[in-house]
Amino acid sequence: MVKWSDFERATIQDIFTKIDKDVVGPAALSRCLIVYPWTQRYFGSFGNLYNAAAISSNPKVAAHGKVVIGGLEKALQNMDNIKPTYADLSVLHSEKLQVDPDNFKLLADCLTIVVASHLGKSFTPDVHAAFQKFLDVVVAALRKQYH
Ligand code: HNI
Q1: pLDDT tens digits, 67-118
Q2: What global pTM score does this model have?
Q3: CB-facing half-sphere around the CA of 60: CA atoms within 13 A
Q4: Which domain holds residue 14?
Q5: Residues 81/46, Cβ–Cβ less than 8 Å
């Protein structure tokens, strides 16, 4: 069972309240596909991913970036039960999508960079630490059903 301090709970909620999810989700996924180009292999049906400009303006990438944020919000609403909440999602990524689980951390890091750029000075080391812990728990939950 993950223990969350009151500061961590409040900080993580505050981050999701402050960020523009329709911007941050697409920006994080685009960044991941650009910085780590091998991740594009899972999005063959998304059309034009030929370069950074194409990826950043690809409507399917943007739409999926919002889906990923929606997935994170589900974790946010179940902070004390993220692993069971993510069981089906983990099976989907493992068995159907066959996503290499090492990529989860890459997308999580891209999300952190985008959130930091949006929150600026308020993204202090303490705030960053709370967000990192949240993403570490999410990534562990997504890896859980991999064998
Ligand atoms: Ni991910 C589908 C959440 C990381 C590739 N992914 C989803 C869905 C959610 C989701 C939610 C939709 C499930 C459904 O349709 O029921 N993905 C997340 C989260 C993370 C994550 C919260 C990590 C923070 N996914 C990744 C990574 C990759 C990835 C790192 C590949 C590099 N995900 C996919 C693909 C799909 C997907 C591919 C299916 C997309 C589609 O519509 O075809």
Answers
A1: 999 999 999 999 999 999 999 999 999 999 999 999 999 999 999 999 999 9
A2: 0.97
A3: 11
A4: 10-146
A5: no
What 3 state SS string does 113-126 have?
HHHHHHHHHHCCHH
- At 34-54, the pLDDT tens digits run 999 999 999 999 999 999 999
Burial 6-27 (b: 16+ CB within 10 A, else e): eebeebbeebbeebeeeebbbb
Q: Which of 104, 115, 139, 146 to mutate to test the pocket of ligand 1 (most atoms within 8 A of CB)?
A: 104
Total structural domains within the chain: 1
78 alpha carbon – ligand 1 mean position (Å): 18
CATH number for position 22: 1.10.490.10
Residue with tokens 């999926």: 64
Classify residue 3: in a domain, yes or no. Answer: no
